[in-house]
Amino acid sequence: MKFSLGLILSWLLAIPMSFAATITASQDPWPPFITSDPNMPGISVEVVTAAMKTQGYDVQFKIMPWARALDEVKNGRVDLLPATWYTKERTAYLRYSSPYIENELSFIKLADNPFEYDGLASLKGLNVGIVRGYGYDGEFMADTGFNRPESGDLATNLKKLLSKRIDLTVKDKIVSLSIMKEQGIDSSQFAFTQKSMSRNPVHVTSGIANPNSQKYIDAYEKGIAEIKQNGTFDAILKKYGIK
User: Which residues contact 72 (CB under 8 A, 6 or more apart)?
Assistant: First the structure.
C-alpha cells in the first residue's frame, strides 16, 4: 500500500513537467543569433528558450526565410519571432518585448573599395543591396538619392558585390562574419565601413492577431528577468563569444 501511494505521488509530481505548454517560434538563419546548428542554435534561440522555460513553456523553433517567418507570426500561425528590429510600421501587427541585445549595422564593400560612409548623402548614386523584409531605418529607406535592390539574404548580396552588380550592402558585422564563415565565403574579399549606419535594439515579438500574444510577451519579460538574475543570460552570451 505504501509503495502504491508513493508511486501515485510520483506520477502526480511529474504531471506539471510533462504538460508544459509548447509554443512555436521561427526565423531565418542569422548567426550567431539564429543558426541551423542544433548544438549552437544561436543567442536569440537560446535566450528565448531559456526565458520561456522558466514560465512553463517549451519553445519549438523552425528555420524559414525571414519574409515568411514575419508573415506567419503577423497572422498568428507562429507564436514568436526571437529577434526583431523595431519599426513603427510593425507595431500595427506585432507586440514587442523590451530589447535584450543590440546590433550595429555597417556597410560592406569590396576590400579594395576606398568608400567610407559619412551619412546618407555619401550613398548618392550607389546601389546598396538590402534583404527583403528587414526593418531598416526609416530615413535610409525613404532616401531617394540611391538605389536599394532587394535580395533574399546576405549571401546573395555578397555574391552581387563580387560580381559588381551592387556597390555596397549593409549588415551587422558580427552576423556578417558568422554568415561568411558558415557559407564558406572568404571574408578577406570584403571590408566594413568604419562608421556604422545605426544601432538597432533586438526584441522578441508576437503577432497581435495571436490571441495569446500579450500573454507570451508578458511571460518572456518575466523569464528574461529571471535568467538575467540567475546568470543564464550571461552564460549564453559567453558561449557565443559576445561577452
Answer: 26, 64, 78
CA–CA separation, 115 and 207 (whole Å): 40
Segment 199-232, tens digit of pLDDT:
889 999 999 999 999 999 999 999 999 999 999 9
Q: What is the pTM of this model?
A: 0.69
The residue among 104, 114, 99, 63 whose CA lies nearest residue 196 is: 104
What sign for the dihedral angle of Cα 81, 87, 70, 77? positive
Report yes or no: 75 and 209 within 8 Å, Cβ to Cβ. yes
For residue 86 the three cell numbers come to: 523595431
Which one-letter amino acid corresponds to residue 141?
M
DSSP letter at 222 equals H
By CB atoms closer than 10 A (0-12, 13-18, 19+), residue 197 is buried
- Determine the residue type at 32: P
Q: Name which of 153, 130, 151, 136 is nearest 36 in CA terms.
A: 153
Which pLDDT tens digit goes with each residue over 147-199?
999 999 999 999 999 999 999 999 988 888 888 888 899 999 999 999 999 88
Question: CA–CA separation, 243 vs 234, rounded Å?
Answer: 7
Distance CA 154, CA 47 (A): 24
Round to whole Å and give the CA distance between 2 and 13: 16
Domains identified in the chain and CATH numbers: 2-100+207-239 (3.40.190.10), 102-199 (3.40.190.10)
Which value, in Å, is the radius of gyration of the alpha carbons in the chain? 21
Whether residue 149 is preceded by a cis peptide bond, meaning omega within 30 degrees of 0, is: no
User: Which grid cell is 190?
Assistant: 570584403
